[in-house]
Amino acid sequence: MSREGGIAGLKAVATPEPLCYIAPDFDGLRPREGLASCPTAACLLKARDRRAQDCGRVDVSEPASISTGIAQRYATAVFDLAREGDDLAALTSDVDALRAALSESAEFRDLISSPVYSRDDQGRAIAAIAQKMGLTGTTTNVLGLMASKRRLFVLPQMLRALDEKLAEARGEVTADVTTAKALSDKQKTALAAALKQSAGREVKINQTVDESLIGGLVVKLGSKMIDTSIRSKLQALQNTMKEVG
């Protein structure tokens, strides 16, 4: 599996090798040669003990505000570490690769969100995936920490938060754009130029495809949202018809 090739099936990347988790707090989180280089198995034993104490299920029912707060903390930690190591370009590459993986692989989305996988299952799989994708040590360690804390389900929110931090570091702002079909490079350039006039800064387009929009697009830029989708117009028309009726 490579950055360009996306995510293979999880069964194909599963590994029997034990995952050695990094320290369970951000103070001990520093780039390392890799999770497998942990010099002691004590962390693995602790993970097994924790698994024995609970049913090994992920709690994905937390309110959105709490999930966002968790994602922001992890994003801040990994961003600060990358900035300290003068490695923001590599972090940008990691974020793009993980976002592509989430978009392309249902298996990957299931791994981070399904309550079926135990801590150890998630940890081993995410370590194998990170290695095959060639992610940096910082990102790999943070993903391992998230697996050990049962926090992988906030990965999409963490990536969005990292996008914002990286864009700000480059003097840019990120616009989340959802369209019914993928935009061409020419369309992206034109949209970025139009949004730049509104934002007063360079704009990076973070695109998502949602065929249910039928046509048009939805743009979220900071606290502003523009919805020109056909779906939205049909819903507005439907609401108007109900009021008339």
Task: Describe, in short, the structure shown.
By secondary structure, the protein is of the alpha+beta class. It contains ten helices and four strands, in the order H-H-H-H-H-H-H-H-E-H-E-E-E-H. Helices cover about 55% and strands about 10% of the residues.
Provide keyphrases for this structure.
55% helix; disordered N terminus; 2 domains; globular; 245 residues; alpha+beta; 4-stranded mixed β-sheet
List the helices and strands and how they pair.
Layout: H1 10-13, H2 42-53, H3 64-84, H4 88-104, H5 106-113, H6 119-133, H7 137-148, H8 155-169, E1 172-179, H9 185-199, E2 202-209, E3 217-221, E4 224-227, H10 230-244
Parallel strand pairs: 1-2
Antiparallel strand pairs: 1-3, 3-4
Helix pairs in contact: 3-7, 3-8, 4-8, 6-7
Strand content: 5-15%
Count of separate structural domains: 2
Give Rg in angstroms.
Answer: 20 Å
Separate helix tally: 10
- What number is the mean pLDDT? 76
What sequence of helices (H) and strands (E) makes up the elements?
HHHHHHHHEHEEEH
How many strands, what sense, and barrel or not for the largest sheet?
Answer: 4 strands, mixed
Poorly predicted tracts of residues: 1-61
- Alpha carbon gap, first and last residue: 56 Å
Sheet/helix structural class: alpha+beta
Q: What oligomeric state do these chains adopt?
A: single chain
Envelope shape: globular
Number of strands: 4
Largest sheet strand order: 2-1-3-4
